[in-house]
Amino acid sequence: MRNTFNIFIFCTLLASFGAPSMLSGEVVSSTDFEAVEAGVPLSRKIFQGEGFTTGTWDNGLAARTVIDTSEFCSGNKSMRIMYPKGGYGTDETGCQVQLRFDRIDEAFASYSLRFSEDFTWGTTSYGGKLPGLGGGNNCSGGSNCDGTNGFSARFMWRAGGKAVLYLYHMDKPATYGEDVDLVYPDGSPVVFERGKWFHIAERVKVNSSADSYDGEVEVWVNGEQVLFRDGLRFVTNDDKVDNLYISTFHGGSDRTWAPTDTCFTWLDDIKIGTTYEDVAFLKSSRNEEASASSEEIKVSQQSANELRIDGLKGSAVVSIYSVTGKKLRTCKTKQSSAIIDISSLKAGNYIIQVKDESIHTSQCIIK
Q1: Angle CA(154)–CA(223)–CA(103) in degrees, nearest 5?
Q2: Which of 132, 182, 236, 356 is the most exposed place for a label (fewest CB within 10 A)?
Q3: CB 360 within 8 A of CB 6
Q4: pTM, to two decimals
Q5: What is the C-alpha to C-alpha distance for residues 132 and 151, in angstroms, rounded to an integer?
Q6: Is omega for the bond preceding 252 within 30 degrees of 0, making it cis?
Q7: How far out from the chain centre does Cα 356 lie?
Q8: What is the pLDDT of residues 272-328, one digit of tens each?
Q9: CB 10, CB 25: distance < 8 Å
Q10: CB of 59 within 8 A of CB of 95?
Q11: Residues of 295-304 as b/e, b for ≥16 C-beta within 10 angstroms?
């Protein structure tokens, strides 16, 4: 069980004598389900009322989803999804709906996810699909991704709750999607624990031309970068990233994948944006155990060359990320303060990540 805690401080580093440069982002659409009536099943109409554009079809929304007030990551409501005992595949478990947006070369999406305490990963085969970004016809289901039928970058749980990116791209090595492990910075695998909220954020960038291998996928879990994959080919036509594919079910293609008991997941705080800042993890008491006491982390710019972080406890790792999630600096310390060299960083928006074994969070903006 991981017991590190993440503190995100969004800051603007100001170069001496220079004006700050701001990176403009756009939250394309989002929902926390708070405006939706409790107890009703989800529908394309409800998603549209929340500001999303949907595809022309859905599967399982009416029969296996509901707006729930018993579990939530923020506010008082979330989307509960059911996986009936003995069921498998899209017709019997989970749900599917496309949350569409205008085609874009690079898109970001995030959501909070919780597995029920009694969630079963399968019977004798273990795995199931989870939402992720896609484009075009969302190549999936064992199809050959030929560059004209789209792509998909969903997630999966595997045996014991192990989390993977389930990637359909032009050069996937087998018939079905490619499993790509999600790994924390300390080398440990991402494992979904039952009964806990996880924040999943994803970036997908399509390749720039038909013969270019420069597509990318990046993933963060609870604010930690757990995957950066480049060198990908997704398309040969003009398809781009254009939907968050809510596609979740047990399987697999037979009943060995079925849950041994009826179980549930919950989705909350769904966001689609154009920068990482639009979808970044913001700590809440339900993402991880709440702190009995909160210790303030203070960030101050000492000069054009140095950033100071105070309030650290124990062994700490302080990192600076670009707003797209690229790690630019990292510093390990056992002191209560850390100084990070920022002399080569341009003025602009950055993300500071502080990790230690204490249970505390702090968030601020430096201008």
Answers
A1: 45
A2: 236
A3: no
A4: 0.75
A5: 11
A6: yes
A7: 22
A8: 999 999 999 986 545 554 333 335 678 888 787 888 888 888 788 887 766 545 678
A9: no
A10: yes
A11: eebebebeee
